[in-house]
Design brief:
This is SGNH/GDSL hydrolase family protein. The protein is about 20% helix and about 25% strand. With about 400 residues, it is an alpha+beta fold.
């Protein structure tokens, strides 16, 4: 195992200031006031990496998006993103509350969300905005519902395609509804919502899990929070470390992948360095580069050396910002759509480098944990989701259980 570096220096991140329009907000019911004199710190409690949108988007509709927090606190704030929008868009009102079931909120938990004191906010193309703090106490492992009323056509809306969670859609303005009856349609992606911060106990920090579909939780059980980062978060509850999921299904280290997002090189600043309170990064990516044989020069095949160079660059960028970055070996591909002798050779070469180079601040050997001892190129059958490329729920749990938590507390 590679040596772990010195303690990280947390570098504050910045946020584009929102353009607020409209009148003053309604008074907030402050049911969750922090104890007087107790210092608190803002940290990411949930996140999702954005990609370009598809379709016509939304207009005169309310999105109710369900997220599962990995850290509790006494206040929350949300981050909206129009990172890949072609034009500015208007959010005509937003609320947040504790989800009961479906689109219904727990009574008396709904709170209005404001931006610079206003209920309405404009997001210019390519921008992100951070809301004002909202007094809402919630524990780790809580389902919260963020509702966004979109009065005008948004065009193709920036989204996170593979939510592995159900969100809801209503015609008209129903952001303030506690009852979910108006939300008659469902969505399997998160739209315009990039993150949620919580005001937590002093010293609380976050680890970003950065990667592709295996980090994103592909083929895990929908609405069950069975991705490996969720399982890790449950192991970490009560230890002052939240887990932020910045996986994108189909994402690559070296090249952009259309609806699967820009490359890890291009999104690292936003999706890792831009997170609130981040201290550590768990990095698991490269399978899609190998599977698509997509080298950094258009039309040329990828080599193990290409991937190693890309990972080395990301390590340097993490270290330049005082973050520790832990490398995770690439899981088996035998029997999958990516399987070939050449692809397996590249996977093995990259894994050997991750294990032995000491370039990362630590190593988690997901390959060793998930492979079948009888055929090490393949998943252990109990961990295979069935496509021989992604784990199932049991495989994701085994991955989370294999992480030596001492790597995250040095």
């Amino acid at each position: 195992m590679a040596a772990v570096g010195s303690a990280a220096v947390i570098v504050p991140t910045t946020m584009v200031a929102p353009t607020a329009v409209g009148g003053a907000p309604r008074a907030l019911a402050a049911r969750s006031q922090p104890a007087v004199g107790v210092p608190r710190t803002w940290v990411g409690g949930w996140s999702a990496a954005p990609v370009t949108g598809t379709g016509s988007g939304f207009g005169d509709q309310t999105l109710r998006e369900v997220v599962h927090t990995t850290m509790g606190g006494d206040q929350v704030r949300i981050r909206l993103t129009n990172a890949f929008g072609a034009d500015g868009l208007v959010v005509g009102g937003a609320t947040i509350g504790v989800r009961a079931t479906g689109a219904t909120l727990v009574a008396d938990t709904e709170r209005p969300v404001t931006f610079g004191g206003a209920r309405t906010v404009v997001l210019p193309a390519g921008s992100e905005v951070l809301s004002d703090p909202v007094p809402l106490a919630s524990p780790a492992g809580q389902d919260l519902a963020v509702s966004l009323y979109l009065p005008r056509s948004t065009g193709a809306a920036t989204r996170h395609p593979l939510a592995m969670a159900t969100s809801y859609l209503a015609a008209g303005d129903h952001a303030a509804d506690a009852d979910g009856g108006a939300f008659t349609s469902k969505a399997s992606s998160w739209y315009l919502l990039g993150g949620l911060d919580v005001r937590a106990a002093p010293g609380t920090r976050a680890v970003v899990t950065f990667g592709d579909s295996i980090t994103d939780g592909a083929r895990s059980t929908v609405d069950a929070n069975r991705r490996y980062p969720d399982d890790l978060a449950r192991r970490l509850q009560g230890r002052g470390l939240s887990v932020l999921n910045e996986g994108i299904s189909g994402n690559r280290v070296l090249t952009d992948a259309g609806g699967s997002g820009v490359s890890a090189q291009a999104r690292f600043d936003r999706d890792v360095l831009g997170q609130t309170g981040v201290r550590d990064v768990l990095f698991l990516e490269g399978i899609n580069d190998i599977g698509h044989n997509a080298g950094p020069v258009s039309g040329e095949p990828v080599t193990a050396g290409d991937l190693i160079a890309g990972m080395t660059n990301l390590i340097a960028r993490a270290h330049a910002h005082g973050l520790r970055i832990i490398g995770c070996t690439l899981t088996p591909i035998g029997g999958s759509k990516y399987d070939s002798p050449e692809a397996e050779q590249k996977r093995q070469a990259v894994n050997a480098w991750i294990r032995t180079s000491r370039a990362f601040d630590g190593v988690v050997d997901f390959d060793a944990v998930t492979r079948d001892p009888a055929d090490p190129t393949r998943f252990l059958p109990a961990y295979d989701s069935g496509d021989h490329l992604h784990p199932g729920d049991a495989g994701y749990q085994a991955m989370a259980d294999a992480i030596d938590l001492r790597l995250l507390f040095r």
